[in-house]
Amino acid sequence: MLKIGEQDEKIVVIVGDISHGLLKDFRKNYPERYFNIGICEPATVNIAAGLSRVGLIPIVHTIAPFLIERSFEQIKLDFGYQELPGNFISVGSSFDYSKLGCSHHSYADVSLMAHLPNSQIFLPGSGLEFEIFFRESYKTNHINYFKLTENPHGVEIHEKDIKVGKAITIREGSDLTILTTGSELRNCYDAAEVLDRNGIDSEIIYLPTFKPFDSAAVRKSISKTKKFITVEELSAQDGLFNAVLRSIIGLGGVVGKQMAIFDFLRIYGSYSDLQEVAGLSRDHIVQNSKALLREEV
Amino acid sequence: MEQTIFPKINSDLRLRIVEMICKSGEGHIPSSFSIVDIIEHIYSFELNVNPKNPTWVGRDYFILSKGHGAAALFVVLEKHGFISSSDIAAYGTKFGILGGHPDSTKVPGVEASTGSLGHGMPMAVGIALGLKIQKKNNRVFCLVGDGECQEGTIWEAANIGSNQALQNLTVIVDWNGSAQQLMPLENLEAKWQAFGWNTLVIDGHDPLSLQKAFKETSINSTGMPQVLIAKTVKGRGVSFLEGHGLWHHKIPNSTELEEIHRVLSE
Questions:
Q1: Domain boundaries of chain A, sorted by first residue
Q2: Is the minimum CB–CB distance between B228 and chain A shorter than 8 Å?
Q3: Is B134 on the interface with A (CB under 8 A)?
Q4: Cβ–Cβ below 8 Å for A54 and B113
Q5: CA nearest A34: which of A12, A67, A60?
Q6: Does A43 touch chain B (CB under 8 A)?
Q7: Of A33, A47, A83, which is closest to B126 when you measure between CB atoms?
Q8: What CA–CA distance (Å, rounded) separates A227 from A233?
Q9: Which residue of chain A has the CA closest to B158?
Q10: To bridge A64 with a disulfide, which of A90, A263, B34, B101 should be the other Cys (CB 3.0-4.6 Å)?
């Protein structure tokens, strides 16, 4: 943010009393373009639209449910309906605040943002992915949403493979396609290794850009394997699984399985505890993959 | 029918509102009547704008946060050359750019798409803040409804406006008593003052009161934003349209339209 802020004086950062440490350098160097508005997210988003109206580039940042779900009417009308560009960067992902309860979770934010015709949506699972996506997108004529995680996947991906709108083939395989986004890549990667030891050759397609969705890459992989699992920390009602289904319309002889969030995760604990309860752990992926392969086409 | 005696200003604009709304069968006549004098004053005397170049960067901004009063804005925009009589004739139709609420992506001179209450004013705060960041002298005016002042985002934005010392921002409250029907608040002025705004209570239909109030706002050097709480009458101009209730969204029948014509043409 500091580097881009240095180069682009149109950037204005607005935060909801959060990430003070992370953004302290930007605040110190560009105090006239940094605003800690406080705890009033709908008005904060609305005001950002006003900034966009006069040609500035707003970057609005706070916790995902408050930024997107609480303020969605403002995003929908003041950005979407008015066709104004802007950037929304959330923290907390879907349930990173694992000890705070469901008020701080957000499973449907990606679905909401996807409804806006002019939106782009990123679930970067690493700092490098975020940096590349942000640099390429922040001043385009889009409503950009970056759903950040505090649990990076740690899987090595080469910089040249990280492109806006492009899926990344993490692992090639022939028996099964595992599709995922964001931090769940870690569990998918680990699950693939277990499956490999069990003689199952899985292909991993990683989609850190949710929108625009790389339907071609998804269709190509599933055409080959005919079996797929989607693994996502998003609402089961509308997320990665639905996007994959849209990509394979008309493709015959395919079986698939959805691993997503079906209900509020009502426990407290660590991030991995909640992944376990959500049925999104490495072992869940292994079990579901094996079960899928036992199904007859 | 009994007539209201009042300074007969803007009868032409009121007639235009009624004709436009009756032709399409859609619109809020009383809500538009309560604000048309204010909007006409702003466009005639306060705004530095260029109808031939509505997006000129040096322009002042007017935002109608009370979006259902759009008919008032449209007839003023027509009068000042932003839109044409054909646009007015096509109001509410698939052939036109004008509808029940203003759309900034369609209508020259409209700065914010409103309709959902509580959105226009925060947008105005954002525009004022953006102009301040850019060190520009453009001014920002925003008209809100008194009922709209029940929305939480109005007060979130009011808090931000004073905290950011947006001296370039003037809000006008159309205080026509709508709020009193639901959640009475006797002292709206005190509420705005509590949020750090300079306040002035004025007569929203009296040209002299408007002139004096806006002159004060133009020389505001307090460093704080200001609000004009304009006492108005919903439906002002035709006595049987005045007040609250039935006429909020009603379209006159032919007899009523004839009477409205007669009153406004005198």
A1: 2-147, 159-292
A2: no
A3: yes
A4: no
A5: A12
A6: yes
A7: A47
A8: 20
A9: A43
A10: A90
In the predicted model, is pLDDT for residue B1 greater than 60? no
Cα A44 to Cα A40: distance, rounded to the nearest angstrom: 6
Residue of B61, B133, B149, B195 to mutate when probing chain A, most A C-beta within 10 A: B133
Q: Give domain A2-147's CATH superfamily.
A: Thiamin diphosphate (ThDP)-binding fold, Pyr/PP domains (3.40.50.970)
Q: Which pTM does this prediction carry?
A: 0.92
pLDDT digits (tens, 9 = 90+) for A29-54: 899 999 998 889 999 999 999 999 99
Instruction: Enter the tokens of residue B203.
Output: 């007569």
Residues composing chain A: 297
Partner B contacted by A1 (CB < 8 A): no
CB of A173 closer than 8 Å to CB of A199: no
Instruction: Please give the C-alpha separations between residue B235 and each of A16, B202, B255, in angstroms, as whole numbers.
Output: 41, 18, 18
Do A2-147 and A159-292 fold alike per CATH?
Answer: yes
**Buried residues in A63-101 as b, exposed as e (16+ CB within 10 A):** bbbbbbbbbbbbbbbbbbbbebbbbbbbbbbbbbbbeee
CB contact under 8 A, A77 and B127: no
Q: How far apart are CA B238 and CA B240, in angstroms?
A: 6
Give residue A62's pLDDT. Answer: 95
Q: Do A54 and B134 touch (CB under 8 A)?
A: yes
Q: Does residue A166 or residue B182 have the better pLDDT?
A: A166
CB contact under 8 A, A53 and B111: yes
Residue partners of A85: CB distance under 8 A and separation at least 6: A52, A57, A79, A118, A139, A140, A141, A142, A143, A144
The domains located in chain B, with CATH, are: 11-265 (3.40.50.970)
A36 in B contact zone (CB under 8 Å): no
CATH topology of domain A159-292: Rossmann fold (3.40.50)
Q: Which of B183, B187, B67 is nearest to B117 (CA)?
A: B67
What size, in residues, is chain B?
266
The residue type found at A245 is L
Strands B61-64 and A57-63: unpaired
For residue A66, what pLDDT band results from cuts at 50, 70 and 90? Answer: very high
The pLDDT value given to residue B178: 80
Residue A50 has its nearest CB partner, among B105, B129, B153, at B129
Distance from C-alpha of B170 to C-alpha of B176, rounded to nearest angstrom = 18
With CA atoms as reference, the chain A residue closest to B129 would be A51
B111, B116, B129 member nearest A51 (Cβ) = B129
